Prior knowledge:
Elements: H1 2-24, H2 38-42, E1 47-50, E2 55-58, E3 76-77, H3 85-116, H4 119-155, H5 167-171
Antiparallel strand pairs: 1-2, 1-3
The structure holds 2-acetamido-2-deoxy-beta-D-glucopyranose (2 copies).
One 2-acetamido-2-deoxy-beta-D-glucopyranose binds at residues 27-32, 44, 46-47, 58.
Region (Disordered): 127-148, 153-172
InterPro entries: PTTG1IP
Keywords: Membrane, Signal, Transmembrane, Transmembrane helix
Amino acid sequence: MLKRSSGCAVVVALLVAAAAALSATPAPKAPCKTFTTCDSCLSNVSCLWCQTNLSCTEYPVAHLLPPASICPLSEARWGVCWVNFEALIIAMAVVGGVLLLGITVCCCCCCCRCRRSSRPDRVEEEYARRREEIKQRSDDRKAERRARHDEIRKKYGLIPDSDHPYSRFENE
Ligand SMILES: *[C@@H]1O[C@H](CO)[C@@H](O)[C@H](O)[C@H]1NC(C)=O
Ligand SMILES: *[C@@H]1O[C@H](CO)[C@@H](O)[C@H](O)[C@H]1NC(C)=O
């Protein structure tokens, strides 16, 4: 009996805790000024932590960057505590620059490949193919003619018959 009631108490406690957690999770609304540590301050993305006087202030959204009057950039923290705002901006600029460069290079490569495989070259290829065909046909004809001439020469013994290389000598 005691066991069951304590089990019930645990379940109720869990439910209450879960309800509290659920109601608390969506909005632990607190103004930035109430935070006293960097981690708690930055848990709200609209807050800015300043290392000089360990203060949490609202991010000055009117300015793109927090002005030095609020906090010098090298002492400001936003998003993460272990990197100062200056380094964060530089890193973002570098990443952005690299991305932009990559995209530009990719575009250039694509354009070049497109232009190379466009009409003028295809026309040239077609010409080359036709030239090759014509050459092949003329070669075929030449070979045919030579074969016929060889046949005639062989018939009249003008060249040695490869099947009977000594036939002429034998005949002489
Ligand atoms: C974040 O800070 C702002 C400014 O103090 C406040 O109005 C807002 O309710 C806070 N948001 C959360 C989720 O704590
Ligand atoms: C922190 O310092 C900045 C200037 O560096 C000042 O504007 C701000 O009011 C200070 N905040 C607190 C809580 O002292």
